[in-house]
Amino acid sequence: xxxxxxxxxxxxxxxxxxxxxxxxxxxxxxxxxxxxxxxxxxxxxxxxxxxxxxxxxxxxxxxxxxxxxxxxx
Length: 73
Known about the structure:
It is a single chain. By secondary structure, the chain is mostly helical. The chain has one domain (2-72). The chain has helices at residues 2-5, 8-20, 49-72. The model has no long low-confidence stretch (mean pLDDT 83). This is Ironsulfur flavoprotein, putative. InterPro entries: Flavoprotein-like_sf. It comes from Entamoeba histolytica KU27.
């Protein structure tokens, strides 16, 4: 996960780049990734409840923004 891997600076830099290029970024309640410590079993990540809730929140936020974009065009 980004917070565990020290990638906060990279994430921040990418978001700044999106912002200065007038791109829409959609956030969630936490980092948008899942954690699977067992690389031999790809379904292990399905046990990561925090990741599943974060992705559900992200999907809802994306749907909200996309509906507004479509409505204004």
